[in-house]
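Thread title: Can someone regenerate the structure for this chain?

I was given the following input by a collaborator and told the matching structure tokens would be attached. They weren't. Posting the sequence so someone can regenerate them.
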Amino acid sequence: MAVQVTTTWLGEMRFESTNPSGHNLFIDTGEESGGKGEGYRPKALMLSGLAGCSGLDVAALIKKMKLKVDDFNIQIEANLTEEHPKYYDKVAMHFNFFGDDLNEKKLQRAVDLSVEKYCGVMEMFRQFAEVKIETHFLKKAN
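Best answer:
Regenerated them for you:
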């Protein structure tokens, strides 16, 4: 299945990128690199793609398994190499589930299925980075 994305220069350090969904996004650098900070940074966008891919899997599995979850988020910390080309060599993903009645075993299974089977972005990251996964079960925030 071919996917096409077109990224168009808007001047200075700013670009607009199409997406097959029909929603465009803007890419820019910070002022320290000659941009105005008016868009996503490309490398950070990769991390958002990773979290989004796995998050969509987990959300679908929560629905399919009829699990009760008040909220969840995915926090990612990534180490960028020092030498050019700079890339992420270590990535830590933290799946944080919130609720008073969490089925920890099934939620862990949902995370494991995403990480090990469904998330293609995860598989891409594994080609160049050491990826660590942690799952946290937390009471509902007051």
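The domain at 42-138 is CATH 3.30.300.20 (GMP Synthetase; Chain A, domain 3).
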